[in-house]
Amino acid sequence: MAKENDLFGGPGLKADLSPMIDLVFLLLIFFMVAANIITFPKDPNIIIPVASDSKVPTLVEGRIVINVYVDGTVKDVEGNTLSIPDLRQRISTARATNPNTRLHLRAHKAVPYKHIQTVSRASAEAGVPTVIFSTYQTSN
């Protein structure tokens, strides 16, 4: 009859690693799901500009994500078109519930500045002067 050896080469109990492997897989699934909750849908029609000095903001909570297209159309992340008064109302409502609200502006790289200025001004008028501009970071 063969005897089982423990980790140190002597007789003893054999360690069952299957519960630990199950736990590792559960943690992996948890973090994958949690990482997807933090992200927001990105519109593939918006080509984000590249900036050499861009920084990734650390605080994600309290953002209102707005997409601005080349023709000046303003949409939310669900794809709903917003007029400037609607945008101002949405921002002021969000600010009333969270005073740390910031505008996350995803503008196409070919958008004329006047459209960005209009959206930024509407945000400031609604009480949210902080605007985060989406850019791709270069490796320089």
Task: Write a concise keyword list for the protein shown above.
Nucleotidyltransferase, domain 5, five-stranded mixed β-sheet
Task: Describe this protein's structure.
- The model has no long low-confidence stretch (mean pLDDT 82).
- This protein has a domain at 50-137: 2-Layer Sandwich (Nucleotidyltransferase, domain 5).
- The chain has a five-stranded mixed beta sheet with strand order 4-3-2-5-6.
- Helix 2 (84-97) crosses helix 3 (113-125).
- The protein is elongated, with a radius of gyration of 25 Å.
- It has helices spanning 18-38, 84-97, 113-125, and strands at 50-51, 63-68, 74-76, 81-82, 102-107, 131-133, 136-137.
- With 140 residues, it is an alpha/beta fold.
Topology:
Elements: H1 18-38, E1 50-51, E2 63-68, E3 74-76, E4 81-82, H2 84-97, E5 102-107, H3 113-125, E6 131-133, E7 136-137
Parallel strand pairs: 1-7, 2-5, 5-6
Antiparallel strand pairs: 2-3, 3-4
- Average pLDDT taken over every residue: 82
Write the H/E string, N to C: HEEEEHEHEE
Question: How many strand units?
Answer: 7
Q: pLDDT under 50 segments (min length 5)?
A: none
Distance between the termini: 66 Å
Strand content: 15-25%
User: What structural class results from the helix and strand content?
Assistant: alpha/beta
Q: What fraction, in percent, of the residue positions are helical?
A: 25-40%
Gross geometry = elongated
Q: Please give the count of helices.
A: 3
| Spatial strand order of the main sheet | 4-3-2-5-6
By CATH, the architecture of the domain at 50-137 is named 2-Layer Sandwich
User: What is the level 1 CATH name of the domain at 50-137?
Assistant: Alpha Beta
Radius of gyration, whole Å:
25 Å
